[in-house]
Amino acid sequence: MLNSRDYTIFDLIVTPFRIIPVQTLAAILYMLLDALMPAYQTLVIAYFINTATEIFNGRADYSLIVKPIALIMGYVIVTHLFPSLMQIVDLTGRNKLNVTLKKEIVLKRARLEYKHIENNDTWELIHRVCGDPVGYFMNGFNNILSGMNLLIGTASLLVIVMSSTFITGIVIVLVAVPLFYIAIKTGRENYAMGLDAHRIRRKYNDLADILTNRDYAEERTLFGYSSAITDKYDKLYKESYTIEKQIQIRTFVNLKSGSMIALLIGIVIVGLLLPPLNQGELSIGLFISLVTAIFSLVQRMSWQLSDTMQQHARIKEYLKDFSEFAKLSEKEDAEAVPVKVDGFIFHSLEFKNVGFQYPGTDRSILKNCSFRMVHGKTYAFVGENGAGKTTIIKLLTGMYDDYEGEIFINDKNLREYSFAELKGFIAVVFQNFSKYALTVKDNIRLGNILKHDEEDIRKSISEMNLNGMIQGLEFGLDTYVGKMKENSVDLSGGQWQRLAIARLLYSDSAIHILDEPTAALDPIEESKLYELFSRINTDRFTIFITHRLGAARISDEILVVSEGRIAEQGSHEQLMGYPSGMYQKMFASQRSWYEAESKVHYG
Ligand SMILES: Nc1ncnc2c1ncn2[C@@H]1O[C@H](COP(=O)(O)OP(=O)(O)OP(=O)(O)O)[C@@H](O)[C@H]1O
């Protein structure tokens, strides 16, 4: 489980230890063994060359070569057989880590306060962190191991080099310091540039979606915007490609020029070993194996160490993001399934002087917003775009709780209900309701995941007048809907909307909220919908948000929202009685349409 704290390099080891202890231990043991191999190789090759020289010079028996050969075989086994075994261990570990870590991250995401989902910056952060967490953790862990491997390997080789020629060892260490510095600096800068590239990549991926997704097919064809969007896509693609190219060039120039210098210094070091060889202080075997070792050491330090340090800097930057993500505030019960409150019967709902600004903004969306609603009546919010109607619903459903003033349900403060309870007795169909690429049955079942009642699913379908549509489907309720799946059937806008409302009916919630529920319905369906909700309003409570005033007037009370407060409240007749009232003006502007329509449908 992710805790709200700073995550450090230390966590790159602790996390795999917690989730895959056996594989982690095996990887560490292998790293230690492998780290000693350069020193081991140097010594056994020196041993082999010296023994072979002795045998060729006739100073030793042939049988003495068996031992160095056996030792060389040991080296071959460790360096050639073990890596393949470790690949298998790594794969099994990676799978388990993947499942566990991803689950923890998904749960954290589900627990986040809603404001983070609607905020662009945190949404970017969430996107960055959740992209490939296992890749970062696993690479981070392997990177630490390869860093340690390099350190131990280098140190053990240095001991051998220094025991023969001390000054050579010191030169090697001095070469390493600037290389080390360049590697860290490049790593940090590359991560920062990588963020820019990531941001641009997301933008052009969105455009690619517009260019290819079936959902946009009709408008794409009719508006003919493909070529304009393609130009924009190309521009962004080039921008991101330029950044990525810059990263690669800088990496190459910084690190590889360092490597060239290191290689030259390696040659100088070999030159330094020649005098001790001449003077017989160094055996020929040790000279040859040391030369091999020094070149491999310099290469490791310049190429491998640079790469390791660069990765390390990149992963450290990722961990900063990860910590920020882990510390994002959560909502209690956010991921909990709705809880049914025994015996809950709706009586009243009240907003008292509620004020609200979206987090991170300084504009008040709701200002001293007050109203009261009671059981037995239907209510409709009306008002201009952006007046604050949906915001009222977001507060009522507990999505945001940092508002001023008070909200009551059944005269009990909203803050005293748990989020799970609120989810249990309030169900909403939002304007931009979800269209799930699932079966018809599952689309409805999501409204109440705890209930398995096919009878009730059919009832909701029938209430939403979807029977005819279902009968026409090859697999009935089990037919997949949506555009993307094979064998799936796409629905019309109105059918999707009715399916979303059927989901709400299936939820068994006491309070129903329908935000623009009839936008995609024809007038006959619209009037049937209002009839249905006034029928079920005896044991449920319904709030509508609508711009269609002909529909709103069927509600017992209409609340006109303007500039974040309730400007007018009353029945259609009462509001029409205010000669210069907002409702009256709004209705007048829609009158011609509704008068013609109402004669037919609203009576
Ligand atoms: N997450 C958010 N962050 C910042 N501002 C927001 C956010 N969501 C909505 N707003 C702003 O709050 C204001 C009220 O929005 P709201 O969706 O409540 O209006 P509405 O009355 O439902 O409008 P409409 O009739 O168009 O659906 C708008 O100006 C909108 O831009």
UniProtKB/TrEMBL annotation:
* Localization of this protein: Cell membrane
Asked if the Swiss-Prot or TrEMBL record annotates the protein with the keyword Transmembrane helix, the reply is yes
**Which ranges does the record mark as transmembrane?**
69-89, 150-183, 253-274, 280-298
How does it sit in the bilayer? Multi-pass membrane protein
Q: What Pfam families does this protein's entry cite?
A: ABC_tran
What is the predominant subcellular site recorded for this chain?
membrane
Q: Which UniProt keywords apply?
A: ATP-binding, Membrane, Nucleotide-binding, Transmembrane, Transmembrane helix
Q: Which PROSITE patterns match?
A: ABC_TRANSPORTER_1, ABC_TRANSPORTER_2
What GO terms are given for molecular function? ATP binding
Q: Where is the ABC transporter domain?
A: 349-588
Q: Does the keyword ATP-binding apply?
A: yes
Q: What is this protein called?
A: ABC transporter ATP-binding protein
Instruction: Say which species the protein is native to.
Output: Paenibacillus tritici
